[in-house]
Write a structure and sequence with these properties.
8 helices, two-stranded antiparallel sheet, eight-stranded mixed β-sheet, about 30% helix, EC 1.13.11.93
């Protein structure tokens, strides 16, 4: 577990410094004397051979993670898979990829030109997953990508890093509902993602989720700095299956709306 922890420590450090600085305040609000339990992280990539989902999954698989559920988001042109470690204390990993071949020819050309800049050698070190952008991009190209696909825009601007971490609501004692977490965060000035309702899912599907709206963070484009949506914080409560064990998968309809936490 030391190697697993080291990888997540690197992801967390990058996430809180570069993508979601407000995470520290969320921690302060929700911690109850013990460290918050991270339910899962999410990573984004392009479905191209050099940087596809399997490339991001490889370092986790080397640490003992195993592929589990698969998910499709047809309207957003995304495919995703989640991974679990035999040690239940290890966070789950949700990796999605944009199906570039289903997008416009303009987007395909732009994305391929970005990925062509990636040095394959940089991908041999697992630290690339929290290394940020491995290509240069100007603000106009980012805007054009974001106009067609928010996901493409976000990934083109930020590169590799945790799109979000997720607090396990099951672990909390003074707050036992996702709605209760939302209410506390609102009182502290956080905006909650309302797309599809502030609480996505239900006990009937064995999973409830919510999230903050993404922080606005400064990104250095090749032609200057701009403030754009970065990372966000998610909250998940899992319910027991018929055998008494907690559901460990994800619900496509809910995850689809969670993606929209980074919308402009």
């Amino acid at each position: 577990m030391e190697r697993v922890q080291a990888l997540f420590d690197g992801l967390w450090k990058d996430y809180t410094a570069r993508l979601c600085p407000s995470a520290a305040k969320v921690h302060h609000l929700l911690e109850e004397g013990t460290p918050l339990l991270n339910d899962h992280i999410a990573l984004r990539t392009f479905a191209l051979p050099k940087v596809g989902l399997d490339r991001l999954a490889a370092p986790f698989i080397a640490l003992g993670y195993e592929p589990k559920g698969e998910y499709e988001f047809k309207a957003k042109k995304l495919f995703a898979r989640h991974f679990e470690h035999p040690n239940p204390d290890a966070p789950k990993v949700f990796i999605s990829e944009l199906l570039v071949g289903q997008c416009s020819s303009e987007l395909q050309l732009a994305v391929r030109s970005l990925v062509d800049q990636v040095d394959e050698g940089a991908l041999n070190d697992p630290a690339f997953m929290y290394g940020g952008r491995l290509w240069d991009i100007d603000f106009d190209t980012y805007k054009k990508l974001a106009d067609e696909s928010e996901y493409a825009g976000w990934l083109s601007a930020h590169g590799f890093g945790a799109n979000h971490f997720t607090v396990s609501v099951n672990q909390l004692s003074t707050l036992d509902t996702v709605k209760g977490v939302n209410d506390l965060l609102r009182q502290s000035g956080f905006a909650i993602n309302e797309s599809g309702g502030e609480v996505k899912g239900s006990p009937e599907v064995c999973l409830e989720q919510s999230s903050t709206m993404a922080d606005k963070v400064s990104v250095a484009f090749s032609d200057g700095e701009q403030n754009i949506p970065g990372g966000f914080y998610e909250f998940a409560k899992r319910y027991p299956l018929a055998d008494g064990s907690l559901y460990q998968g994800f619900v496509e309809a809910s995850a689809d709306k969670i993606f929209e936490s980074t919308d402009q």
